[in-house]
């Protein structure tokens, strides 16, 4: 593993435009349970999973009931969001912030809704699935800090008059167009992508490494031909292989905890051997 960590540090140092993609594997190291793991929120509470699938439609049909559920007033899973808001960054988050401060990492695109990258000091963060710390208006697309909204009367309202929802992207809800477009732009632009702690099975987020590797498709004699981008380096940091590993989308996998491996990469950058 040490040789791969050293290789990753060298590749990062030589990159011109490196970005990181992060998933639940980074959050679990901060004590935030995942959803479908052995002790995941939905594994242990099937009712919570069923409600999660209905939450976006609930907002569209009854914003007040949605907010009562989100705040836990209806005896549902709102408390788990509060636990997420109380979580703290781990060494992996701080390592990515350090890579950005060094001028190496240009952007973090995360599936995680916990806001821990920003709390650790990362400046340019695209929260693909939203944030528990933010409210969003589906009408005018504006966003505001959760603390700025009054929740004494439900639902809270945007200045445009529409009901606000949590910025968290629920099942059946489209990824916000501005975030999706910027994420795709970053994936197409990068020459190195660190994929950290994501199983790479949740779409459309899982398409981003493939966009980096295969930036264009063209049809020849009714066959789909994919142009392979050899100039991009895709490095996985994860507990085990993912579809990106098995399909050859990534160049190599460093197995282990992101909170241990990413700080080691930073150490090699500061003290190359």
Structure, explained:
The protein has 273 residues and is α/β, with parallel strands linked by helices. The chain has a domain at 1-31 and 88-128 and 175-273: Rossmann fold, CATH 3.40.50. The chain is built from 12 helices and 11 strands. It has helices at 2-14, 24-28, 41-44, 46-61, 63-70, 78-86, 91-101, 116-120, 177-189, 207-213, 243-246, 258-270, and strands spanning 18-22, 105-110, 125-127, 134-137, 143-145, 164-166, 192-196, 216-220, 223-227, 233-238, 252-255. The strands form 3 sheets. Strands 3-2-1-7-10-11 form a 6-stranded parallel beta sheet, with helices on both faces. The chain has a 3-stranded antiparallel beta sheet with strand order 5-4-6. It has a two-stranded antiparallel sheet with strand order 8-9. A hairpin with a 5-residue loop joins strand 4 (134-137) and strand 5. The longest helix has 16 residues, at 46-61. It is globular. It starts with a helix and ends with a helix. The model is unreliable at 74-79 and 217-227 (pLDDT under 50).
Kindly list the characteristics that best describe this protein.
6-stranded parallel beta sheet, alpha/beta, 273 residues, 11 strands, Rossmann fold, 3-stranded antiparallel beta sheet, single chain
Please give a quick description of this structure.
By secondary structure, the chain is α/β, with parallel strands linked by helices. It is 40% helix and 18% strand.
């Amino acid at each position: 593993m040490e040789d791969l960590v050293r290789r990753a540090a060298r590749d990062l140092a030589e990159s011109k435009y490196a970005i990181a993609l992060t998933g639940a594997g980074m959050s679990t190291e901060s004590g935030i349970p995942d959803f479908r793991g052995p002790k995941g929120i939905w594994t242990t509470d099937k009712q919570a999973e069923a409600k999660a699938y209905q939450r976006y439609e609930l907002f569209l049909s009854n914003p007040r009931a949605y907010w009562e559920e989100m705040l836990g007033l209806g005896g549902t899973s709102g408390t788990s969001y509060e636990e997420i808001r109380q979580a703290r960054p781990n060494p992996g988050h701080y390592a990515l912030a350090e890579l950005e401060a060094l001028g190496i990492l240009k952007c973090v695109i995360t599936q995680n809704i916990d806001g821990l990258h920003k709390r650790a000091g990362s400046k340019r963060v695209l929260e693909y699935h939203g944030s528990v710390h933010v409210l969003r208006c589906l009408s005018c697309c504006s966003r505001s800090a959760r603390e700025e909204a009054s929740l004494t009367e439900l639902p809270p309202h945007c200045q445009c008059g529409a009901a606000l929802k949590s910025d968290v992207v629920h099942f059946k809800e489209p990824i916000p167009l501005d975030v999706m477009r910027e994420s795709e732009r970053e994936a197409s632009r990068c020459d190195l992508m660190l994929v950290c702690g994501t199983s790479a099975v949740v779409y459309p987020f899982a398409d981003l490494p493939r966009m980096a590797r295969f930036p264009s498709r063209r049809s020849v004699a009714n066959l789909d031909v994919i142009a392979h981008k050899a100039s991009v380096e895709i490095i996985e940091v994860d507990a085990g292989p993912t579809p990106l590993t098995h399909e050859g989308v990534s160049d190599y996998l460093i197995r282990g905890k992101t909170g241990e491996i990413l700080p080691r990469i930073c150490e090699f950058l500061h003290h190359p051997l």
